[in-house]
């Protein structure tokens, strides 16, 4: 009886048997991954600037973080544990749901 009630609730909410594949989820996840890696790179560049300012290697009010671009490549930020550790499992779950919707 419990599954029958659950099926009725799902049907009322608009679920018609099997989910349809959607590319909105992967696109949104990819957008957020790129945005997150951009801000993580900016944070790292400012951290390099702060370390040099603390050591007295740059001017007191210098905010030119672009001098440290060679130390922090975009590819290394995208492959970092904080980005891959969060978005990697999301990718796997999303691909699994997509395959389930296509094959199921």
| Overall form | rod-shaped
Estimate nothing, just give the exact number of structural domains: 1
Structural class: mainly alpha
Rg calc: 22 Å
Distance from first to last alpha carbon = 24 Å
Written as H for each helix and E for each strand, in order along the chain, the element string is HHHH
Which bin fits the share of residues in helices? 55-70%
Percent of residues in β-strands: under 5%
Mean pLDDT across every amino acid position: 78
Low-confidence spans: 5-13
Biggest β-sheet strands, sense, barrel: none
Please describe what this structure looks like:
This protein has one domain. The protein contains 4 helices and no strands. The protein has helices at residues 2-12, 24-55, 74-78, 81-103. The longest helix is centred in the middle third of the chain and has 32 residues, at 24-55. It is rod-shaped and about 60 Å long.
Short description:
With about 100 residues, the protein is an all-alpha fold.
Keywords:
rod-shaped; 4 helices
């Amino acid at each position: 009886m419990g599954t029958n009630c659950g099926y009725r609730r799902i049907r009322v909410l608009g679920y018609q048997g099997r989910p349809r594949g959607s590319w909105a989820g992967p696109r949104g996840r990819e957008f957020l991954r790129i945005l997150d890696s951009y801000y993580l790179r900016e944070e790292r560049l400012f951290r390099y600037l702060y370390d040099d300012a603390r050591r007295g290697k740059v001017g007191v009010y210098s905010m030119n973080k672009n001098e440290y671009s060679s130390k922090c490549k975009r590819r290394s930020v995208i492959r970092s544990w904080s980005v891959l550790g969060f978005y990697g499992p999301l990718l796997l779950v999303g691909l699994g749901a997509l395959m389930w919707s296509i094959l199921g």
